[in-house]
Design a protein that fits this description.
Purple Acid Phosphatase, chain A, domain 2; five-stranded mixed beta sheet; 4 helices; globular
Length: 176
């Protein structure tokens, strides 16, 4: 899946794009930013809504560079194709990727109630349409890139990147 044959990876983070109910396609400025940054991979945290949005990312960046999970609003084809959660280990860090469930105020509690996250260093999630970038007192990073397209459930639009190496975990939220 993800190759760590470099000293450092730059991973784009996006989710809750809701194509076409929010916009016709992922905004070009975001795609261009990922290209200019030369991301190694792109993680989509679910709620593409339609298969075309997923396929378009694969066409734009290459199938091998798109890591995706399903969201609660994804169509049947995506739910049959994409996993609900992913476990990765990169540079010795255990990473849990999920769409998430529940409201934004209790998402961290919900994730910890639903899953045993004790072995993970990084938890990346979507669903709440709000950016989240915190290192908790237990040392775990909780990261949500928010949504780049929704204007109904949030006034903040964003996406993110994660710079990862053996020496560092560096998440960044990019506000639009």
């Amino acid at each position: 899946m993800i190759q760590t044959n470099k000293d450092e990876l730059l991973i784009g983070l996006i989710g809750d794009t809701h194509i076409p109910s929010r916009v016709a396609e992922i905004p070009k400025n975001i795609i261009n930013d990922f290209k200019e940054r030369e991301i190694d991979y792109l993680i989509h945290l679910g709620d593409f809504d339609i298969t075309y949005a997923y396929q378009n990312l694969q066409k734009t960046f290459g199938k091998e560079k798109i890591i995706a999970i399903q969201g609660n609003m994804d169509n049947r084809e995506l739910k049959q194709t994409l996993p609900k959660n992913l476990d990765l280990e990169l540079y010795g860090y255990k990473i849990f990727i999920t769409h998430g469930t529940g409201g934004p105020d209790d998402i961290i509690q919900n994730l910890n109630n639903m899953y045993d996250l004790s072995e993970y260093d990084i938890i990346i999630f979507g669903h709440v349409h709000r950016p989240y970038n915190k290192k908790w007192s237990d040392g775990k990073y909780y990261i949500s890139p928010g949504t780049p397209t929704d204007k109904i459930f949030t006034k903040i639009n964003s996406y993110g990147v994660l710079r990862l190496s053996k020496a560092k975990i560096e998440p960044e939220i990019i506000y639009i």
